[in-house]
Design a protein that fits this description.
The structure is a homodimer of 216-residue chains.
Chain A (H helix, E strand, L loop, with lengths): L6 H14 L5 H10 L1 E5 L4 E3 L7 E16 L2 E8 L3 E2 L1 H8 L7 E14 H10 L1 H27 L2 H12 L4 E2 L3 H8 L3 H13 L3 E4 L2 E4 L2
Helix pairs in contact in A: 3-4, 4-5, 6-8, 7-8
Chain B binds a DNA duplex (30 and 30 nucleotides) through α8.
InterPro entries (chains A, B): cNMP-bd_dom, cNMP-bd_dom_sf, Env_Response_Regulators, HTH_CRP, RmlC-like_jellyroll, WH-like_DNA-bd_sf, WH_DNA-bd_sf
Keywords (chains A, B): DNA-binding, Transcription, Transcription regulation
GO molecular function, one term (chains A, B): DNA binding
DNA sequence: AATTATTTGTGACTTTTGGCACAACAATAA
DNA sequence: TTATTGTTGTGCCAAAAGTCACAAATAATT
């Protein structure tokens, strides 16, 4: 974790965040500058640990973070955080002290804005743009989670896997190992390997080492 | 649906709601009186239908409502609404027009406070107590749903069933048919019947018609 | 009391998912 | 190039969950 390693570019990213969220209140802009800190993390850094107290709201400015729950050997993806997105669970913690029930790990090198929870709480009623931001974060996360939930309940793993690949594909290619996919979908590696083979022989995919190509 | 059938008792319930949520702003109290309506529903009434536009935030003042998603023959419980609780999904709709992805059915005769979505949105930044209410609703619902999600991912059905019975038990007794339990847990009747039999022979339950007694 | 409808039980079978063991293959480093 | 490590493939079996068919038990209705 390198605090203000790239001071100038961090500043640009914060300004970008302020613009994208339409934070027009000058006072809030100042408070953000003053009271938040920006940290830089490398791939695979763990930035939130299960059972740890949450003291700051984390907002991704650059990069990507994977938030997941673990249960013994198994894991399941809760959500990804992309730029300009706040970690909904750390937002929750702003309104009631609590420990994290998830882990968050850096998926792509990233820059993160950290805002101590007490400010987040205060700003929520003080600044309209901030209020919109937290409300939208909750709304979008809640809707997303409901979808995940009912897919998990109703869809067979094979379908969930295929849909997941399509959603993750960067121009038809997904660069992930079977083990990684297993952890995101809450199952085991062998199961994924077999389902992928089946999808391949159904002509839906091409399998290569560490890489899956989706066919149209 | 009987509008203001019991005008006086409705008024008392609204006041009770106002007190419990510590809505101290007189202006908001007036707005609530003026702009909301109170409706009364009987068991099994459907109050929200899948794919319908959501025009009001629904808050339960008395009774109980079951909110669930359906997928063909199957269903899965999303949450129950108890007194003083708002339907989180209709809260979501207050901040972005959308259709419902769930159904809501009255589980116990109930009285419901209906607030048109535009007011909910406005009040969110206008009144602090209202802001707290919506924030708490989101926070609690989100945490609850995350738990449901990871239970669904990690726990075998047998455990989810038993935990569900314990949580629903009214002094160790749950009055539900196997079919109803199946619909709440997202599975089929036969599966539930068999699991219940197994739990009974393990000495965890006593089964009677339409009734399950949990043993300590 | 007889009929009807609802609820529960269960056998027999299939599909889906999971676990273990080990082989084959690919990538990387010494 | 060889050794090491990580990744994928797969046989074999077990457990969990789902489906179909039908019987038995219980409750509700006439």
């Amino acid at each position: 974790m390198y605090l203000y390693e790239h001071f100038e570019s961090s500043k640009i990213m914060l300004n970008n965040f302020i613009n994208q969220l339409r934070i027009t209140e000058l006072e809030l802009q100042d408070e953000l500058q003053e009271k938040s800190s920006i940290t830089i993390h490398k791939k695979d850094d763990i930035i939130i640990k299960n059972n740890q107290y949450i003291k700051v709201l984390k907002i991704v400015l650059k990069g990507k973070v994977r938030v997941y729950q673990e249960n013994g050997e198994r894991e399941i993806l809760i959500y990804y955080l992309n730029p300009i997105e706040a970690c909904t669970l750390s937002l929750s913690a702003c309104f009631e002290d609590c420990k994290s029930t998830v882990n968050a790990v850096v998926e792509e090198d990233c820059t993160i804005l950290n805002i101590p929870v007490r400010f987040v709480r205060d700003w929520n009623f003080k600044y309209k743009s901030w209020n919109s931001f937290t409300t939208n974060t909750y709304r979008e996360s809640y809707n997303h989670l409901i979808n995940q939930y009912s897919n998990l309940a109703f869809q067979p793993l094979k379908d969930r896997l295929f849909d997941y690949l399509v959603s993750k594909a960067n121009d038809t290619v997904v660069k992930k190992t079977h083990q990684e996919l297993a952890k995101e979908l809450g199952t085991t590696r062998e199961v994924i390997s077999r389902l992928l083979k089946k999808l391949e022989s159904n002509g839906k995919l091409n399998l290569r080492q560490k890489e899956i190509q989706i066919l149209k």
